[in-house]
Each structure stands twice: as C-alpha cells, then as structure tokens.
Design a protein that fits this description.
single chain, 215 residues, mainly alpha, 0% strand
Length: 215
Amino acid sequence: MDRTASETDPRPAPVDRRPASTARALGLVRAIARGGFEAGRIALRSPAWIWVVPFLVVPVSIALHYSPIAVVVSKPVQEIIAPTVIATATALAALAFRRRPGAWAGWLLALCVSLFARELHLPGTNLGFYIVFVILVLWACANFDRVHASLPSGAPVHLLVAALWLYLASKAFDRNYVAALPAYWVWHDAAEETLETVGHIFTAWLTLDAVRRRE
C-alpha cells in the first residue's frame, strides 16, 4: 500500500514557536489594519458635500467676524455654545444607548462624553481627550465587524465623517498651520471655534438620528 508524503517524510512538521502573546498581538494588529481599511472605504464613499463644509464654514465665520453681529463667532460666546451643543449630543447618545444597546451606540456615547469633557477645559481634559480618541479609534478598527453589525439600517455614518473632518480642520487653525492666510491673526479664533461648534452640531445630528431609529 502506498504511503502518503507525510508518512514517508522524516522531517518533523513545522511548529509555530511564537509565544501566544505575540500571536495575539499580531492578530490584533491585523484586525486594526483591516478595520481601518474598511472604515476608510466607508468614509471615502461619503457624499461629496461633506468635504466642502469646512471651506464654507471658514469664509462665513470670517464674514461674521467683520459684521455687526461679530459677537456670534467670538471666542467667549462660542465657548458657551459649543459645550451646550455637545452636552445635548451626549444626553442624546446616552438615550440612544439605553434604547438600543450595542457596540455602535456605546462607541458614540464614549466619543460624546470625551468631547464634552474636553469642552470643560479642566486640567488634563485636553490631553485626555486625544488619548481616549486614539483608544476609541483603535478599538473600533479592531472590532470593526462588531461595530458595523450593530449599526441601525441606514444610519447616516457620513455625519460622523463630517464631524471628524470639521474637528480636524479646526485643529489646523488651533495649531496655526494656515497662519500664512491674509489677516489670519485677526479672525483665526472665530474660524477655529466655529469649525468646532459646527462639528459638534453634526455630532448632535448623528445622536438625534440614533435616538429616532428603533430598528
């Protein structure tokens, strides 16, 4: 009777000698990479108008800054509006999570809580937000299938993309990456704060949608 190759080959079968912890770490890295790729594909399929919003908000905020109602975009007023909007979003996110617990609702609630804590401007909340945000992003990527499966049918995820895009744009002004713009130091606070507030509005819009959906 013929023997198979495995029966006749004297060499031992290869053994994975990597520690279990290393294997788990590599698996986590692969999951994060795959989840990040899939999330990126979803973001790139967002409506084109999303990418234009910051380029509309900035000139509008500049125009308001030079108008008789400039106080609307002033830093002191925006520092009242922004926390109010994100506090509302946090309350809505908590209600959405209570009505429909899941990975997506829990992730959205955690994001809103961290954004609200940052708006309080307490010691450590700014750095703490960035740490929490990175953890949230990595967790969502690592658990992409779980988060995606918990999304209600037709959930407007593009609103989250819009909010994050606006937050990123506000950071460009916060770090003065575009300081070469004309009269930048006159109106940059108005642009930065307005971009952030509009980002909060998109986040609140997303949480309101999450509350209204029951499926």
